Amino acid sequence: MSEFKRISPEQALDLRAKGAVVVDIRDPQAYAAGHITGSTHLDNHSVADFIRGADLDAPTLVVCYHGNSSQSAAAYLAGQGFSDVYSVDGGFELWRATYPAETAQGQAE
Predict the structure, then answer these.
(1) Range of the domain at 55
(2) Is 102 part of the annotated catalytic residue set?
(3) Which of 25, 65, 72, 82 is the least buried, fewest Cβ under 10 Å from its Cβ?
(4) Whole-angstrom distance between the N-terminal and C-terminal Cα of the chain?
(5) Residue 82 domain-assigned?
(6) What CATH number did the domain enclosing 40 receive?
(7) pLDDT for res 78
(8) What is the largest CA-CA distance in the chain?
(9) Residue 109: inside a domain, yes or no?
(10) Which comes out higher in pLDDT, residue 108 or 104?
């Protein structure tokens, strides 16, 4: 079984700049209030479609509130065949504190 890796926001920023996919698993209201620019909101209803359309070899960053729930989600994606999955330590809260200019607001598309 594939495993995910835990990374810092600094490492995540670098991977994102190189084209990594960023998924946010927080609730829709939290995502709308603020999220990493360019991220995709995932929930129980959208994850199957996301997996079907995803490049399983593309680096994939998983973000939650503080970096705890994202570990379970990253493990799930790794179990679904994703080969390069990361859980961002500190979650969106640390990302926002570290990179406020790299955040956006608005509903999931």
Answers:
(1) 5-104
(2) no
(3) 72
(4) 32
(5) yes
(6) 3.40.250.10
(7) 97
(8) 36
(9) no
(10) 104
Q: What is the DSSP letter of 67?
A: S
Asked, for residue 54, whether it belongs to a domain, the answer is: yes
In sequence order, what DSSP letters do the residues of 17-59 get, joined into one string?
HTT-EEEE-S-HHHHHH-EETT-EE--TTTHHHHHHHS-TTS-
Which is catalytic among the residues 64, 73, 78, 94?
Answer: 64
Count of structural domains within the chain: 1
pLDDT at residue 108 tops 90: no
Pairing of strands 40-41, 103-104: unpaired
Residue 79 is assigned to a structural domain of this protein: yes
pLDDT of 15-73, one tens digit each?
999 999 999 999 999 999 999 999 999 999 999 999 999 999 999 999 999 999 999 99
Per-residue buried b or exposed e for 29-54, using 16+ beta carbons within 10 Å of the residue's own CB: eebeebbbeebbbbeeeebeebeeeb
The predicted model scores a pTM of 0.94
Task: Supply the pLDDT for residue 11.
Answer: 98
pLDDT of 107 > 90? The answer is no
Residues 51, 82: Cα–Cα separation, whole Å: 9
